[in-house]
Amino acid sequence: MLGQKLEKYEKDDNVELVIIKGAGRTFSAGGNVKAAVEQKFSLRESRIEKSRLGEYLGLTGERLRGKDVVAAGLATHFVPSQKLFQLEKCLLSINNGEEDVIRSVIDEFSTNVQIDERSILNKLPINNECFSRKSVEEIVDSFEVEAGKKGNDWIVPVLKRMKKASPTGLKITLKSIREGRKQTLSECLRREFRITINTLQTIISDDFYEGIRAIIIDKDKSPKWNPSTLDEVHDEQLDLIFKPFEEHDLFIFGLTTMEPEASNAQTMDNNAINLILARLETMYRDVARLNVGLEKLDTDVASISGRLERVESQRS
């Protein structure tokens, strides 16, 4: 839907400026001007020359701060968050969509970027050395070697998180990032669609649901991944996750050569959708029951605390 709106705005002579913010910031990646704030950003891909920052972020779950995003070339300006409201007011008041004018306005609110010495951008040689390896197994082995060298203590907690992640998820992520470098936007969106649907349908693993159980429902933070090791996740399995759908692939308005009439055939099989929704609904019910239990526990604790306070006051 956003793609349709942007295409409509582009053809509308009355539209001078489009501001995308908040959760929609992902969709501003192709914009002419991109401002970042202090928040951390979770990113799938980066284009700092030929760096492997994309693999690092995708496989470790690490995030870039606003200044890092600018330094990496993923944003054009760094604006302190307390200035955003005033910046937006100024942009809306100028009634001019010329890029030079917009940039000059944002320049007045932006500050120079000095990245923290602990930033991953200052560790690109290590990052490129390790994350350019062919497989996740080789990446982990290489990263472990670097962790043992003097001055590389920062790697230890990052490596620990990698090893606790789903082996299937890690391999899907690496393959997805590397395929994305060679694909158009529409091809990337279709790939992500296939990965999402096949993951929800547990084509090769139920790790997605197991992760929800361990983190959100039971909160034991001890997921039982299946397969449990990287060696058990084979290329043939990954191919099933990335395999194009024969009849129900994604129709992307404005980004495809398909005729609009063909979009009627681009819907998922109803049975598959119902199975996914039923499983998610069950998990949501489990979460709701857990929340009710926690609320009752809070009430019981408050009642006991009140009784203890009364006993203490009687003793004194």
Automatic annotation (TrEMBL):
<comment type="function">
    <text>Hydrolyzes 3-hydroxyisobutyryl-CoA (HIBYL-CoA), a saline catabolite. Has high activity toward isobutyryl-CoA. Could be an isobutyryl-CoA dehydrogenase that functions in valine catabolism.</text>
</comment>
<dbReference type="InterPro" id="IPR029045">
    <property type="entry name" value="ClpP/crotonase-like_dom_sf"/>
</dbReference>
<dbReference type="GO" id="GO:0003860">
    <property type="term" value="F:3-hydroxyisobutyryl-CoA hydrolase activity"/>
</dbReference>
<feature type="domain" description="Enoyl-CoA hydratase/isomerase">
    <location>
        <begin position="2"/>
        <end position="40"/>
    </location>
</feature>
<dbReference type="Pfam" id="PF16113">
    <property type="entry name" value="ECH_2"/>
</dbReference>
<protein>
    <recommendedName>
        <fullName>3-hydroxyisobutyryl-CoA hydrolase</fullName>
        <ecNumber>3.1.2.4</ecNumber>
    </recommendedName>
</protein>
<comment type="similarity">
    <text>Belongs to the enoyl-CoA hydratase/isomerase family.</text>
</comment>
<keyword id="KW-0378">Hydrolase</keyword>
<dbReference type="GO" id="GO:0006574">
    <property type="term" value="P:L-valine catabolic process"/>
</dbReference>
<comment type="pathway">
    <text>Amino-acid degradation; L-valine degradation.</text>
</comment>
<feature type="domain" description="Enoyl-CoA hydratase/isomerase">
    <location>
        <begin position="46"/>
        <end position="242"/>
    </location>
</feature>
<dbReference type="InterPro" id="IPR045004">
    <property type="entry name" value="ECH_dom"/>
</dbReference>
<dbReference type="InterPro" id="IPR032259">
    <property type="entry name" value="HIBYL-CoA-H"/>
</dbReference>
